[in-house]
Amino acid sequence: MTIPENQIISIDQAHVWHPYASFIEAPPVFVVASAQGSTLTLSDGSQLLDGMSSWWCTIHGYNHDTLNQAAKDQLDKMSHVMFGGLTHAPAAELAQLLVDITPASLNKVFFSDSGSVAVEVAMKMAIQFWHSQGQPQKSKLLSLRNGYHGDTFGAMSVCDPVTGMHHLFNDNLMQNLFADAPVSGYQTKWDDAYIANFQSLIEEHHQQLAAVILEPIVQGAGGMRIYPPEYLRQVRRLCDKHDVLLIADEIATGFGRTGKLFACEHAQIEPDILCLGKALTGGYMTMAATLCNDRISDGICRGEAGVFMHGPTFMGNPLAAATALASTRLLLNQDWQSNIQRIESLLSEGLAPCRQYAHVEDVRIIGAIGVVEMTSPVIMTEIQKAFMAEGVWIRPFGKLVYVMPPYVMTDEELTTLTSAMTTVLARPELLQG
Fold first, then answer.
1. Which of 227, 249, 402, 407 is catalytic?
2. Is residue 278 flagged as an active site residue?
3. Do the annotations mark residue 278 as ligand-binding?
4. Is Transferase there in the keyword field (predicted)?
5. Average pLDDT over residues 252-268
6. How far is residue 90's CA from residue 74's CA, in Å, rounded to a whole number?
7. What is the spatial distance between Cα 290 and Cα 306, in angstroms, rounded to a whole number?
8. Residue 410 is assigned to a ligand binding site
9. Coil, helix or strand at residue 114
10. 192 alpha carbon, distance to own chain's centre
11. pLDDT tens figures, 192-245
């Protein structure tokens, strides 16, 4: 028996708490009945082209035959088994594949169940490593302004205190350090002044710093900012010079989103610890991974505890691992680089008219990411309606209207997506103030 749409919405409004939403004057929600390829079908039969890849994870689109079959095959064997003292083929094969495709020094894989937890794991790895080295004072982290790393408490402590959306909790969080945001622009001509603030902080505080954590090349939910690879190279150099670990949060940028398989490749650097999530399973299951090098794993395992002090219940979940394995192989077995270049070209061409609008601050594109920054925050409920009237699903935040489409989106669909953006964003009345 199918519950009627009005009953679903009634239950939802009474009981379901949505992300960053209120029960008082709650924003509207829309019931999705099914999804296929790049399209969401709502319960009333209307269809929306999904420009968000469901928060950046459904890189192969919805209801993909290969991923469906991988999940079904694994379900017939076992959906879950504890990872303490046991292992299984999907987790082992996935770990090997991730080791093979990530920077060469990263050869240890710790599975968890969300991106935020992958960041927590990375932070704990760094802190426990230094504790095992007899340097427990190295327990702080240095992050970047405009950075975003998740919603759990450790992750919140390394998000920008203002744009990271967690300022209400500042008094309850571990107090970390923040360097100025990197200079904007992938092609920005380098000046050593751009790294000066970061260099000053790491020089002054390196004896207390366990690690630097950053999103390589593209800062996500903290500002959708793109910065030059040289900044990342300079950070790696300074971390090496001052014996501070480097954590790369590639939860949003991994698996081809920026035009490289991993964004660190733009600068040809290797982090000590790498966080993966979102697109790992193609958006089918929640799963994440934190990779590290031998120095980290050996240091921790030779320390006081002798083990890494973390172990999620659903760690290495077979159903998620099998789907992740299928998703990653599906990506690697196609000419994904040419495909991302195609998407980048169409986003650049399609969003170019927005540069002429007086109420647009900036338009920036890298890989399969397109961002239009407005001069003022958008009126969320109104702009959402306008996009839906154009047949697309785009969910802006603040001043940022962006898309991260599924890689399977066709040229025609991408044109529809960007045309909707240029049409809707031409209307200054959809901005606050």
1. 249
2. yes
3. yes
4. yes
5. 98
6. 9
7. 19
8. no
9. coil
10. 28
11. 999 999 999 999 999 999 999 999 999 999 999 999 999 999 999 999 999 999
